């Protein structure tokens, strides 16, 4: 069992990473465009491939096409990384609280092969 690690999609405000690290410095949060992460402009299927290979959950705002990408990915690979879709009306602090609750109370494997819409509660 392992802890969740998060990759922020390029459209997610980078302030979210800073806010998460302020609360839990050891939490692994990378962002598309970071040196080791996928580069800006990487396709969603390629981002999912990278997340699966590196055992990261994807944080995104993409409600429109991400469910279809997840279905295709599962069909091709048999497993997929977790996807958490952030709600646009949630504040950064509300999003941080929700993600830290998820991170602290569960294992990464519990969320695999599925898409989750925040807030969960």
Explain what this protein looks like in three dimensions.
The model has no long low-confidence stretch (mean pLDDT 95). The chain is built from four helices and five strands; from the N terminus they run E-H-E-H-E-H-E-H-E. With 121 residues, it is of the alpha/beta class. It has a five-stranded parallel β-sheet with strand order 2-1-3-4-5, sandwiched between helices. Helices cover 38% and strands 13% of the residues.
Count every beta strand, where a strand is a DSSP E run of 2 or more residues: 5
Oligomer: single chain
Number of helices: 4
Main beta-sheet strand count, sense and barrel state: 5 strands, parallel
Roughly what percent helix?
25-40%
The amount of beta strand, in percent, is 5-15%
Question: How many angstroms separate the termini?
Answer: 24 Å
Shape: globular
Protein traits:
121 residues, alpha/beta, 5-stranded parallel β-sheet
In short:
The protein has 121 residues and is of the alpha/beta class. 38% of the residues lie in helices and 13% in strands. The mean pLDDT is 95.
Secondary-structure map with pairings?
Blueprint lengths: L5 E3 L6 H9 L5 E3 L12 H11 L2 E4 L5 H12 L5 E3 L6 H14 L9 E3 L4
Parallel strand pairs: 1-2, 1-3, 3-4, 4-5
Helix pairs in contact: 1-4, 2-3
């Amino acid at each position: 069992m392992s802890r969740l690690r998060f990759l922020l999609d390029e459209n997610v405000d980078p302030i979210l990473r800073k806010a998460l690290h302020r609360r839990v410095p050891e939490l692994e949060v990378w962002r598309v465009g970071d040196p080791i992460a996928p580069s800006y402009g990487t396709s969603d299927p390629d981002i999912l491939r990278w997340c699966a290979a590196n055992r990261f959950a994807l944080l995104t705002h993409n409600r429109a096409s991400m469910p279809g990408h997840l279905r295709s990915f599962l069909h091709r690979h048999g497993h997929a990384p977790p996807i958490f879709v952030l709600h646009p009306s949630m504040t950064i602090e509300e999003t941080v609280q929700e993600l830290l609750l998820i991170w602290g109370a569960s294992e990464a494997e519990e969320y695999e092969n599925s898409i989750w819409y925040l807030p969960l509660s």
